[in-house]
Each structure stands twice: as C-alpha cells, then as structure tokens.
Amino acid sequence: QKADVARPIISGQKKCCLAVTEPGGGSDVANVQTTAVLDPSGQFYTLNGQKTFISGGMNADYFTTGARTSGSGSKGISLFLVEKETPGLKTTRLKTQGWHLSTTTLVSFDDVRVPVESRLGNEGEGFKAIMRNFNNERMALAITANRQARVCLEDAVKYARSRKTFGKPLASHQVIRHKLMECGRHIMATHAMIMSICAQKSRPEDATEHLAGPIALCKVQATKSFEFVARECSQVFGGKSYLRSGPGRAVERGYREVRVLAIGGGSEEIMLDLASRQAKL
Q: Which of 83, 123, 137, 268 is catalytic?
C-alpha cells in the first residue's frame, strides 16, 4: 500500500479523501451505518451505504472509508481504501455555502467489492485511527480559521486607513479603532493557544490523545473568534463586504466559510462536551 498508494499521493499524482461522515450523523463516529460484509471466500468485503459532506470527493482517486464490519459501537468499525473506479461507487457534487473549491461530495456505495488487502489495519480497529486523525484535522481547522481571521483584519485595517468619511480617514474614528483592536485581541489570543498546543508536541506526527481536550477548545476558540472578526470587519467595510469582488472580497468569503470551520471536524457543541469529558467533570 505504501508503494502503490502513498507514493503517488505524496508526489501529487493521485488524490485521497476521508469518507467518514454519513447522512444520519457526523460527530457520532461510533454510530457508522455503512456496512462491510466479508464474502464467504474471504477475499472481498462488500460495502453498502452513503457518506456525505466529503471534502475533495469529486477529485479523489481513493476514499479512506469507515465501515461497520461487526456488532455495534466503536469496536465494530474498520477502515478501507476504496478506489474511485470501483464498480458501484458513485459521487455526487453538493452545492455548498462556501469552500467551493473543496468539491463537497455525496459518496454512495452500492455493493462495492473491496479486496481484503485494501483494509487499513486490523478489522475492528478503524475507530482509533479515525479519532487520532480528528485531532490533527481539528488543529488544522483552528489554524485555518485564525489565518482567515487575520486576513480579514489586515484587509479591514488597510481599508480603514484609506477610506475617508466625514472628511477624515475611517480609522480615525474611535469606534472603528475599537472594532479593529477587538479583532486583534481575539486573533492574538487564539494564536497563543495554538502555539501552546503545538509546543506540547515533540513532532507534528506525534500522538495527541492527551491533547484532545485542549485541541477541541482551541477549535472552538478559533471559530468563534473568526466569526466575530468576520462580522466586525464586515461592519468596517460596509456594503463592500457584501460583494465577491473589490477590497472586501476576503471578508465576504470569510463570512460565508466560517460556518464550515465551526461545524466541520466536530461542531462547537461536541468539542465543548469532549473537552469537559477529558477534564472528568
């Protein structure tokens, strides 16, 4: 698998996406309903079910898919690497509010036969791998949210310095300066939280189970801050932040895309509950 799959993906020749979320539930990963039944010959699994909100699904060559191989709960989930051209696999583009380049996809498995060799790891151990990946995904989403917030603020500051109202620059009005500084305060606090968590990992690829709670809180901090910053910067730009072109285009885009960051990878509510459970409240 490393030679046949990992190498072309790392080199950019092939693309891979994660297919875990289902129409019946997203954050409740242990309740996966897609099934993978081992055929009598022991050579193939037959997959049936659907995955939704799959980022990059329309362009992917491989789908890393979570499916139920036995029983119920987290211990019955296994991971499979499914090729896009496999008979019975269908992809449908979903129209989204933001993240248009991600080609968000509905993936359907209709009696898809997957070789046993395409199972990733041991049967029944897929849940651990999925959750381990979630920590890195959530950190990436937090960093993305804070960076987009910073871009919104940078553009708003530039605009406030050049735009004149009532005979003076917009930035000279105290109410505008306060908005910009509040945005900066949120961004700086989030950045400090991100750096603190990163400093607790010797290497980026190290296991992060013990940091699951702080990472969950960091994601909430980042997305709530981004939402605040996008709104305040939108107020600074006025009508120009409602246009997809011009000086306020980054704010317009950020205002649309903050929702996918707040929900994707685990909603804010799920993240807060996860952190409280790790804190043993």
A: 137
